[in-house]
Write a structure and sequence with these properties.
The chain has helices spanning 10-13, 50-56, 66-69, 72-82, 88-91, 100-108, 127-140, 145-161, 164-175, 291-303, 313-323, 331-359, 365-391, 401-417, 424-434; strands at residues 2-3, 6-7, 181-184, 200-204, 207-218, 225-231, 243-249, 255-260, 269-279, 284-285. With 438 residues, the chain is α+β, with helices and mostly antiparallel strands. Bound molecules: flavin-adenine dinucleotide. The site of flavin-adenine dinucleotide has 19 residues, from strand 3, strand 5 and helix 15.
């Protein structure tokens, strides 16, 4: 990973993960403030069954092939040119940032939908190629939010479950950066308990009549389409039965999108209301009633990528640049930087291992949950640790204003890292079940 002016290369740390600290019972909490190694990290005799151990075998180390690594210099040069002059505080938004012109420029280079087949406008490259791209986008803080969901999960979902007509219609536009998608899963009383969704589509002569409401929908106000999880038969009490996914054209009459202001003052997620929205029969994606299985597979794409590790990378980078200057240098800051890098390296290796599984056609749901839980914990600690370091300085006036502004933004949004894409508690429940511990 190249960070501006500073090299933090997780690859160089691979295999050197020295372990972490623990706080309380079975909960593993990394304590990077302490220089003292913890006495133990696991309760003695943790009952990991054979099934659990084979589950963890999913983290077999995988390497990014040389032909995909070869993309990096070109991507860096492109980003250095396009992001020139963009403030760190703005770049810290990265996959929450919105820049449709950048998305179109990336599409023109074949860097959107890079894993999709050429016949649908993609580049037919591997998931590793996408990993390299995304890693570079996030570390540079490129505002990639406009195409993010379409590139990450809607495109692959349409490729997997869509009809030929849906693929021909949607995929080329996604690859050109002309069609943006959002995720319509959460509702006001269905977040963690997603199976209880109440938004309903009833079949009629024209197709599907949609009524209901979604919430926290990232970038809905900028998107052309939503892939919505809705009830097409039965009642909310029927849980996983009777759910389907629909592609909803957000320009249709009856759709109302209201942005919500977040803690940082940004308006990036929305409430979306559907009042008698008439969809055609072609809106259904996949099989009617199979929505739950489809959504579960989609979540593995959503949870394991570099975006669950690098959300605090821009502020980390700004801080690293400062502690390399005479004004910012301190021995304790250098040690802290090393500790953060040594935690990043194994997380990156785990995330790449999940990418290997996804590209082999597997559905590593538990592994993806592990990456997200550990990754977002680190992402949340980075701004807190940097704030501690800055607060300990004798002369705080030497801290650059841009670093402070970037830190303030990252600190405000950090709580959302372990909410979006499934909360920490829900992921830990899944992990415990997957390991046979509950
Ligand atoms: C920045 C951001 C972007 C988002 N973008 C999208 C989006 O684009 N599309 C979309 O559909 N959603 C989106 N979400 C919504 C997100 O998926 C939900 O917030 C999340 O799933 C939690 O649901 P909830 O907010 O209803 O909380 P709740 O489910 O009400 O949970 C409240 C608290 O109770 C805990 N809890 C709930 N059930 C259990 C349980 N069984 N065991 C233990 N603890 C439990 C939770 O962990 C949480 O701490 C976004 C959220 C954020 C913060």
């Amino acid at each position: 990973m190249k960070t501006t002016g500073v090299m933090v290369n997780p690859v160089a740390f691979e295999g050197k993960y020295a372990g972490d600290g623990c706080r309380g019972g079975n909960e593993r909490v990394v304590d990077m403030r302490s220089d003292t190694p913890p006495e133990h990290c696991y309760p003695k005799g943790l009952p990991l069954s054979n099934a659990a151990m084979s589950q963890l075998a999913g983290f077999d180390p995988a390497e990014i092939p040389a032909e995909d690594e070869a993309l990096r210099p070109e991507v860096r040069a492109f980003l250095a040119h396009h992001l020139n002059g963009l403030r760190a505080e703005t770049r810290a938004r990265s996959w929450s940032g919105y820049d449709p012109a950048l998305s179109r420029a990336l599409g023109a280079r074949g860097w959107l939908g890079i894993t999709l087949p050429r016949e649908y406008g993609g580049s037919g490259r591997s998931a590793y190629a996408r990993y390299v791209l995304v890693e570079e986008f996030l570390c540079a803080g490129a505002p990639v939010g406009s195409h993010w969901i379409a590139d990450r999960q809607s495109g692959p979902l349409i490729l997997k479950y869509g009809t030929e007509a849906q693929k021909q219609f949607h995929l080329p536009k996604i690859c050109r950066g002309e069609s943006f998608f959002c995720i319509g899963m959460s509702e006001p009383s269905s977040g963690s308990d997603l199976a209880s969704v109440r938004t309903r589509a009833r079949r009629n002569d024209a197709g599907w009549l949609l009524n209901g409401r979604k919430i926290w929908t990232t970038n809905a106000h900028h998107c052309h389409y939503m892939i919505a999880l809705v009830r097409t038969s039965g009642e909310p009490g029927d849980r996983h039965q009777g759910l389907s996914q629909l592609i909803v054209d957000l320009s249709l009459p009856g759709v109302t999108v209201r942005p919500i202001t977040d803690l940082a003052g940004d308006r990036h997620f929305c409430e979306v209301f559907f009042d008698d929205v008439q969809l055609g029969p072609e809106a259904l994606i996949g099989a009617e009633g199979q929505g739950w299985a489809q959504v579960t597979a989609e979540l593995a794409y959503e949870r394991s990528g570099p975006e669950r590790i690098y959300s605090s990378m821009v502020v980390f980078d700004e801080w690293l640049a400062w502690i390399r200057t005479p004004a910012g240098h301190s021995a304790s800051a250098t040690r802290l930087a090393g500790r953060i890098a040594s935690h990043l390296a194994p997380l990156r290796a785990m995330s790449i291992a999940v990418t290997a599984q996804l590209s082999a056609g597997q559905s590593p749901v538990v592994e993806a949950a592990l990456v997200k839980d550990l990754g977002t914990s680190l992402e949340q600690q980075i701004p807190a640790l940097i704030a501690d370091d800055l607060a300990s300085r004798e002369d705080p006036s030497t801290v650059p204003a841009e670093l402070l502004a970037t830190l303030a933004y990252t600190t405000r949004i950090a709580p959302s890292f372990s909410l979006r894409g499934g909360t920490r508690e829900i992921l830990r429940g899944m992990i415990a079940r997957g390991l046979g511990l509950r």
